[in-house]
């Protein structure tokens, strides 16, 4: 992963990067410089959230207020209940794609019920320990996830660069130049915030007609209110919304946990994935009861917060939600005149900073095993093709598992060790025995030519599953059919326990 403290695209290096507990809220409140970073980080994220939330509302087929209110409630709630400090959760495109059919076919109230049920499912999955599954995500999948994310963030900006006035292009160029060059002069204020302010003042002062945030959709004029979805509480309603709620819960958890792991790496800090899992559920439940469309962790905005702005605590997450509400409700007229070119410049630099450029260097690709590169590239292709990070990660993990099993299967071999006497032959089995490797074991013995007694030494092996036990049974039976006996030795304790429990009881299993 790119190092956030050395990346040329990072707008600011946290002034407290080497302090002991960089995620402590109390420590940040006691330090004016840290608090400034958190406050400004939250403000930049809030500005970036507005057009995103409006766009995702359009994808879901709901009023922009539904996405904006969801972003507010998600960010504020997760700031208290989430497990990953400084991570931003709000309305997202992945969740919007999942719930769009509910709105289209059944209406807004069913959407809200779906969001609430999805939150409940996330809480249950979190308490059941679903976060522990993250340990099965290989590094190659994680790298592919990050690179695909960078590509998706960039592609999301392309529509804002097509069919627009020509002045958009120099404005974007100026914004990128400010974000890259300003940190070389000062890091007192996040460069993305400076770029947004400068471009806004420039377009207004010079009366430059370019697309603005206000063109993306009407901003709300009132605060969100508590409500209960007007749906019949029946089994029919449950069966209607349950599939979408489950899909939303799984997609949201996948993206949130992957984002949390990415932030852990970028900030070199640890977070509670279990708490983040059920915290996402709580945030979605709250969001549903306030009429929001639900959401999960947002990687683009999170990277703005932790890399571009240097934030590290829950303060920035909380303030991102608060500033969002203040901006769209209280200062909507001012926010509406921000040129989209400014936000495009910010997101383009976020995509550049997110990309793991080291992983795609020719020297790295030559050094990496082909299977690792295949998994990484496959993850990127699936994510970009489906615009769904969760699907890409699942496919990447499955491909990695298959390739790993295939590679390990060929590491098992049988060695003719010794002939102690004329009636005995000693074999040694080396490597892990499991369903993919044990099947070839049967063909590696000389059933006809071996003497009356055969010893199979498994001290350099391990029996992992029932398939391996069944294979050992098959070998024993093949020798027995020729009047020969087999003695299996050297089993470690787990292998011995598994073999004693299953041997002789798996006829036909192999």
UniProtKB/TrEMBL annotation:
Pfam family name, one: Sulfate_transp
PROSITE patterns: STAS
Alphabetically ordered keywords of this record: Membrane, Transmembrane, Transmembrane helix
Domain STAS residues, every copy: 426-510
Top-level taxon: Bacteria
Keyword Membrane: yes
PANTHER family assigned: SULFATE TRANSPORTER YBAR-RELATED
Name this polypeptide is given: Sodium-independent anion transporter
Organism: Terrabacter tumescens
């Amino acid at each position: 992963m790119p190092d956030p403290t050395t990346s040329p695209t990072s707008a600011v290096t946290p002034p407290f990067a080497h302090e002991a507990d960089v995620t402590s809220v109390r420590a940040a409140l006691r330090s004016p410089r840290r608090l400034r970073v958190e406050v400004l980080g939250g403000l930049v994220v809030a500005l970036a959230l507005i057009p995103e939330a409006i766009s995702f509302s359009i994808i879901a087929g709901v009023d922009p207020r539904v996405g904006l209110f969801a972003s507010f409630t998600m960010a504020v709630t997760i700031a208290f209940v989430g497990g990953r400090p400084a991570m931003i959760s709000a309305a997202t495109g992945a969740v919007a794609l999942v719930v769009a059919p509910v709105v289209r076919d059944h209406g807004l109230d069913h959407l809200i019920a779906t969001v609430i049920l999805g939150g409940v499912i996330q809480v249950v999955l979190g308490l059941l320990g679903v976060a522990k599954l993250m340990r099965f995500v290989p590094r190659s999948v994680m790298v592919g996830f990050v690179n695909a994310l960078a590509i998706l963030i960039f592609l999301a900006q392309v529509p804002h660069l097509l069919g627009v006035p020509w002045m958009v292009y120099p404005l974007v160029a100026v914004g990128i130049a400010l974000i890259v060059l300003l940190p070389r002069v000062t890091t007192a204020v996040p460069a993305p915030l400076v770029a947004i302010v400068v471009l806004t003042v420039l377009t207004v002062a010079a009366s430059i007609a370019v697309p603005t945030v206000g063109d993306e959709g009407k901003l709300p004029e009132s605060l969100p209110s508590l409500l209960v979805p007007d749906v019949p509480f029946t089994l029919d309603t449950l069966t209607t919304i349950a599939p979408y709620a489950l899909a939303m819960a799984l997609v949201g958890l996948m993206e949130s946990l992957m984002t949390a792991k990415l932030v852990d790496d970028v900030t070199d800090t640890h977070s509670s994935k279990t708490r983040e899992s059920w915290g996402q559920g709580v945030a979605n439940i709250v969001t549903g009861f306030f009429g929001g469309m639900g959401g999960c962790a947002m990687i683009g905005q999170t990277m703005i917060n932790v890399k571009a702005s240097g934030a590290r605590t829950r303060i920035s997450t909380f303030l991102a939600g608060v500033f969002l509400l203040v901006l769209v409700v209280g200062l909507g007229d001012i926010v509406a005149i921000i040129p989209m070119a400014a936000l495009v410049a910010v997101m383009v630099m976020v995509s550049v900073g997110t990309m793991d450029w080291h992983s795609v260097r020719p020297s790295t690709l030559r050094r990496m095993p082909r299977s690792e590169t295949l998994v990484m590239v496959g993850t990127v292709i699936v994510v970009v093709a489906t615009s769904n990070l969760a699907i890409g990660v699942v496919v990447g993990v499955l491909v990695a598992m298959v390739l790993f099993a295939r590679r390990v299967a060929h590491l098992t071999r049988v060695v003719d060790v010794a002939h102690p006497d004329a009636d005995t032959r000693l074999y040694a089995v080396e490597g892990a025995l499991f369903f993919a490797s044990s099947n070839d074991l049967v063909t590696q013995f000389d059933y006809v030519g071996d003497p009356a007694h055969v010893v199979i030494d498994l001290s350099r092996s391990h029996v992992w599953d029932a398939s391996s036990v069944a294979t050992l049974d098959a070998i024993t039976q093949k020798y027995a059919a020729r009047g020969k006996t087999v003695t299996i030795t050297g089993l470690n304790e787990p292998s011995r326990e598994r073999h004693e429990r299953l041997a002789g009881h798996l006829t036909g299993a192999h």
